[in-house]
Design goal:
Layout lengths: L18 E6 L4 E6 L4 E4 L5 E5 L7 E6 L5 E4 L5 E4 L5 E5 L21
Antiparallel strand pairs: 1-2, 2-5, 3-4, 5-6, 7-8
């Protein structure tokens, strides 16, 4: 299966914007899994795709809570995720600014298999 770019330009929350966070105790970082059973993965060039079938080091993200209630993600390349004008996510920011901040809505896991 080809990779699917992860974008942050949605106005409404659907199952495509619903993710499961899985903590990795060894690295103290997080895997982010889609409802389609794919992992967010850092690709060559810094792009983020929902293409990973398996857990790997490029599928691990550090979550950093910000003072305003948002969260920033640091990818395996040491860069923060940012939203480009197109809405695509790239791990290319050296510091957190407004383009690097995301908000979570916590929901109970559905009965569907993850």
């Amino acid at each position: 299966m080809d990779g699917v770019d992860v974008t942050a330009n949605q106005d409404e929350i659907s199952s495509h914007e619903t993710f499961q966070l899985e903590f990795d105790w060894a690295t103290r970082r997080w895997y982010i899994r889609t409802m389609q059973d794919r992992y967010w993965t850092l690709e060559t060039g810094g792009g983020i795709q929902a293409s990973g079938d398996n857990k790997s080091s490029n599928a691990l993200f550090e979550l950093q809570w910000q003072g305003d209630g948002s969260v920033a993600f640091r990818a395996n390349n040491g860069k923060f995720l940012l939203t480009k004008r197109s809405g695509h996510l790239y791990a290319s920011a050296d510091a957190v600014d407004d383009n690097c901040k995301y908000y979570f809505y916590l929901i109970n896991r559905s009965t569907a298999r993850f």
